[in-house]
């Protein structure tokens, strides 16, 4: 079943067409890697899915509900209900610096969902263990490495039990030696059949972990397919050129 259905999604910044009638589906348990050159619209596409952008045209359906239809987002209450099914992990972590790791994890479930403290505490403990940070619950983000911060951000996103996780270049702000520990956590999530969309420059990760790869260029999805096809036998010259550049 398609959990995300995007059709003819369009977005302009003034004269600049950033997304040009983009159409794609994400099915349950898919791991979709989105690749493409800088400025091709990857972040804008992802941010549109969680209403961090306004759009000019097209439809976005999540789990069968219209988040946006014919270029207009639904009413605020519906947006909130639909976007709560998605967890987002950003390039720059976006942790709250004045809150401890544990408080970062527990804030939204307590404030937004009003969940009982004992449930929230149990889950934050489990998720910190899952991302390999059990001992760091009471530490402030400033005391963590970039890789640790990003693993906290992933645990925080998981606290809301999202049906889909969205990642926007989760390792691009990290030193190379810290990239692996974050990709390892993401790989584990994929093995547990978490549905994910991952905008990434990590071609190795896309090849190994993604069930499908979307190649974007100039506001369009040029082609998509399983990694073993797209990487070894791309159909379009633009994909070939991008890959020959990126796989060097
Ligand atoms: N707030 C904005 N105002 C005007 N133009 C914008 C804005 N945000 C993005 N753009 C433009 O939209 C286009 C797509 O940007 P986007 O950030 O989605 O690309 P991207 O594929 O994520 O690139 P990168 O790989 O560098 O992150 C770019 O040309 C960018 O300059
Ligand atoms: Mg981007």
From TrEMBL:
One of its GO terms (molecular function) is ATP binding. Keywords: Amino-acid transport, ATP-binding, Cell membrane, Membrane, Nucleotide-binding, Transport. It is found in: Cell membrane. It is a peripheral membrane protein. Its main location: membrane. InterPro entries: AAA+_ATPase (IPR003593), ABC_ATPase_HisP-typ (IPR030679), ABC_transporter-like_ATP-bd (IPR003439), ABC_transporter-like_CS (IPR017871), MetN_ABC_transporter-like (IPR050086). It comes from the Bacteria. Pfam families: ABC_tran (PF00005). Residues 4-243 form the ABC transporter domain. Belongs to the ABC transporter superfamily. This is Glutamine transport ATP-binding protein GlnQ. It comes from Paenibacillus allorhizosphaerae. The lineage of its organism: Bacteria, Bacillati, Bacillota, Bacilli, Bacillales.
């Amino acid at each position: 079943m398609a959990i995300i259905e995007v059709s003819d999604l369009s977005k302009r910044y003034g004269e600049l067409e950033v997304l040009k009638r983009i159409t794609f589906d994400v099915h349950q348990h898919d791991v979709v890697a989105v690749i493409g050159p800088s400025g091709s619209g990857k972040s804008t596409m992802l941010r549109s899915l969680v209403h961090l952008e306004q759009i000019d045209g097209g439809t976005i359906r999540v789990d069968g509900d219209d988040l946006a239809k014919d270029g207009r987002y639904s009413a605020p209450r519906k947006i909130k209900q639909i976007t709560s099914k998605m967890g987002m992990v950003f390039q720059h972590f976006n942790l709250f610096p004045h809150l401890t790791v544990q408080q970062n994890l527990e804030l939204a479930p307590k404030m937004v969902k009003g969940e009982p403290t004992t449930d929230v505490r149990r889950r934050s403990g489990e998720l910190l263990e899952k991302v390999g940070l059990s001992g760091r619950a009471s530490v402030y983000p400033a005391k963590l490495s970039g890789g640790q911060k990003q693993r906290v951000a992933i645990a925080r996103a998981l606290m809301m039990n999202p049906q889909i996780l969205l990642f926007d270049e989760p390792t691009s702000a990290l030193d190379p030696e810290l990239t692996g520990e974050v990709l390892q956590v993401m790989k584990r999530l994929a093995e547990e059949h978490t549905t994910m969309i991952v905008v990434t420059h990590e071609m190795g990760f896309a090849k190994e972990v993604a069930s499908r790869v979307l190649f974007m260029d100039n506001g369009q999805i040029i082609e998509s397919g399983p990694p073993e096809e797209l990487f070894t036998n791309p159909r379009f010259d633009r994909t070939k050129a991008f890959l020959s550049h990126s796989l060097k």
